[in-house]
Amino acid sequence: MLGREFLIVVCAFGVLLALAGCDREMQTSPASGVEAVQAEIAEPEHSAHPHFTLADEGQFREPFKVFDNLYFVGIEYVASWLLATDDGLILIDSLFSDEEYLDYLLGNIRKVGFDPAELKYIVLTQGHPDHYGQAFSLQELTGAVIGTGLGDWELIENDLWSTIAPRRDWVIEDLETLTVGDTTITFMITPGHTSGTVSLEFPVIDGNKSYQAFLAGGTSVRTHDPDVLNKFIEDMERIKSIEGIEVQINNHPFIDDLFARQMLLVNRKEGETHPFVSREDFLAFVDQRIGVAKDQLEGKMDN
Ligand SMILES: [Zn+2]
Prior knowledge:
Elements: H1 3-26, H2 33-40, E1 64-67, E2 70-72, E3 81-85, E4 88-92, H3 100-111, E5 119-123, H4 129-132, H5 135-142, E6 145-148, H6 150-158, E7 170-171, E8 177-180, E9 183-189, E10 198-206, E11 209-215, H7 226-240, E12 245-249, H8 258-266, H9 279-297
Parallel strand pairs: 4-5, 5-6, 6-7, 11-12
Antiparallel strand pairs: 1-2, 2-3, 3-4, 8-9, 9-10, 10-11
């Protein structure tokens, strides 16, 4: 579906990143403030990964409410979700490390009616640079507690992308729960995309109704290693077996056409069920990810 086009985009960005790397080495002008600190950070070898700035077409997105307690505050390529409780805010993922994204995130949190000073926790679903970019800055600014899985803490600390690693506040364990005010999140460690990928189950509110939502922190496996693929399939089966999940949330909008679903929400008529609520869609999605992983196991796919 998106597979081939996406790979081409990823490859194209790999080339751009290689070129950008050359540019960086040639820059000799002195930088100031945060730039100076960032310039001093040694740029280690890191995995090829797509990168976008706000100037890239389509990346800037107005933030929007999806449920009464869940807001999209991310960009076209990657999500950042704000989960509001009656005793503070939880941010899920923090975009890229470019300085512009700090103001963008803070601005978006304010635009949807909250004070960034109320951030209590930041959960990173993965240790890839499109998810942990502003973690250090937000930790410094708000004192929010940052958590991800052990494998992904190691990934962040060893594969840093133009930022400083956040302090390792919290190593999230499989089936750990976190309660903030009226909201309880249950975490699952679901390796495959990375070794400590964090998935979350949490309630979402729509008027006087509450539903259980699930955010799978990594929906693709980037290896043919049968052990990794089998564990991923096992975890996806485990997710399917959780009763009562009716809402699917993702950490990349392209995974489930978030912006098309947003329009369903905009056009929703009085009295209609929230368009994101569908246990069938959730199960079909998980089954589809299992199918892809099985094809990889059987060598039917390149990636
Ligand atoms: Zn990733």
